[in-house]
Amino acid sequence: MEWGVTVDRVEIKDVSLPEAMKRSMARQAEADRERRARVINADAELQASKKLAEVAGEMSEQPAALQLRLLQTVVAVAAEKNSTLVLPFPVELLRFLEKAQQQGPQMAAPVPQPVSQMPAPAQQPLYPSVPQSAQQPVQEQLPPLTPRLEPHPEGSVSRQD
Predict the structure, then answer these.
(1) At what angle are helices 91-103 and 63-78 packed, to 10 degrees?
(2) What is the pTM of this model?
(3) Rounded to 5 degrees, what angle do the CA atoms 128, 130, 134 make?
């Protein structure tokens, strides 16, 4: 013979939580979602960096591949129908600048001379078989224009150049 009560099942019908506890639980759930999103983003960045390193290795073997990729990017941006202006920078120029930087001050650029100190170019005809008079600019061959005043059909004077 046993004395007592045996509980077979408990059913909760209505629970009222204080507002502070509800806010705290919502903040905790949001922080957990943000943490998972950061982990997913970090994993995606890691995968992207590995792929970019692999692509860089492939492109370093074929210099034309980088030019083709640049042109693909230009085509993709131009297809968006926006007002973005893309100016491709020649890769060869970047390589030249990189080499110049590595060589340091050994490659000093020449100092430009003022125009007044430059020697005059030799006056040689552009086309030796063509007479010199035909090589002069057209304005030098024509007589100067003088304005003419002629009566207008309706009685006023008009100027024709």
Answers:
(1) 130
(2) 0.37
(3) 125
